[in-house]
Amino acid sequence: MNKDWDKAALITIGILACILFAIIGSYVSWFYFMNDASLSLNSGDWGAFGDLIGGILNPIVAFSALCWLIISVKTQKEELKAVKDELITAHEIQIDLAKTQKIQRFENTLFSLLEHYRNIDEKLSTVEYDGGVAKKTQLSILVENLLEIKISSKVISPEEEVSYKLQYGYYFMISYQLLKLVDEYEYEDKHRYFGIVGSFISGQSLLLLALACSHEESDDYKKCHLLLEKYGLLKGINGTEKVIIKYLKTSYKDEAFI
After folding, report:
1. Radius of gyration of the chain (CA)
2. What are phi and psi of 236, to 5 degrees?
3. Could you give the maximum distance between any two Cα atoms of the chain, in Å?
4. Do the beta carbons of residue 128 and residue 135 sit within 8 Å?
5. For residue range 232-241, what is the model confidence (pLDDT) as tens digits?
6. Structural contact between residues 224 and 209, judged by C-beta atoms closer than 8 angstroms
7. CA dist 28 to 21, 24, 59, Å?
8. What's 240's DSSP letter?
9. I need a labelling partner for 232 at 20 to 30 A (CA). Which of 61, 93, 124, 258 fits?
10. Per-residue pLDDT band at 110 (split at 50, 70, 90)
11. Does residue 100 register a pLDDT over 80?
């Protein structure tokens, strides 16, 4: 851009110089060569000659200055627009970068929690054998205990209730944190991530979570209960025994199973 301006300035100066020399040359040719006149010694004549030169050059110089001013303003507007466009582009890139970083942090946290969940689920679902006979898994025992308490209205002491909650409490907290994390995800593909989480929390694991959150008044359990309803996460247990489904439907809205 600077080279173009320098070139244009030199051209303008050259044109003005040519005009000046053309005027002087015409004047000299007319009086000296055509009319055989000598150089005047009268200062008045030279003053008139100066007025002639100024009268011709001043409008040309003024017009050239105006043109340069218009071109300069136009160029500055174009440069400012280019700078504005670059700033907008840079801002959009920053937004995209921030979004990418947020998604990466979210996914790192999500998959880290899923790995913890998988480890706990594997531990609870491990089948042990006694004399070649398979024993009930810890997960099955927890589900049966909750079924007795929730459906059969088994009376338990406060100490037993605390003991049961301690047994499945860590599993519940990781499950709830997973659901809460995806619920708070601010971008459009939230349901895709719920699909991923739902592929981990399924079968007896999902039933345990549904039972644990049913008819509970404590804050985290109620919040988890609402998330199970909000995203229809209990549709995966529709094949469970009718008596269990019937009980769960007394606690959850229909949309939880759709």
Report:
1. 44
2. -75, -5
3. 139
4. yes
5. 888 877 666 7
6. yes
7. 10, 6, 22
8. S
9. 124
10. very high
11. yes
CA atoms within 13 A on the CB side of 211: 30
Residue 184 pLDDT > 60: yes
How many whole angstroms separate alpha carbon 214 and alpha carbon 224?
Answer: 10
Q: Please, is 64 exposed, middle or buried when counting C-beta atoms within 10 Å of its C-beta (0-12, 13-18, 19+)?
A: middle
Task: Give the containing element (helix H, strand E) for 74.
Answer: helix 43-125
Residue 200 has pLDDT above 60, yes or no: yes
Distances (CA, A) of 227 to 178, 220, 235: 11, 11, 13
Q: What tokens does 250 get?
A: 């007394």
DSSP string over 172-214: HHHHHHHHHHHHT--STTHHHHHHHHHHHS-HHHHHHHHHHHT
Contacts of 111 by beta carbon, 8 Å cutoff, 6+ apart = none
pLDDT of residue 214: 86
Instruction: List strand residue ranges (DSSP E) for 64-199, in order.
Output: 129-130, 133-134
Cα separation, 205 vs 171, whole angstroms: 9
Q: What is the mean pLDDT of the chain?
A: 80
**Alpha-carbon distance 52 to 58, whole Å?**
10
Task: Give the separation between CA 127 and CA 66, rounded to whole angstroms.
Answer: 92
Q: Round to whole Å and give the CA distance between 208 and 147.
A: 9
CA dist., res. 39 & res. 41, Å (int): 7
Model's pTM, two decimal places?
A: 0.65
Q: Calculate the dihedral angle through the C-alpha atoms of 95, 96, 101, 105, rounding to the nearest 10 degrees.
A: 100
Tokens of 51: 């007025």
Q: To which residue do tokens 């359990």 refer?
A: 221
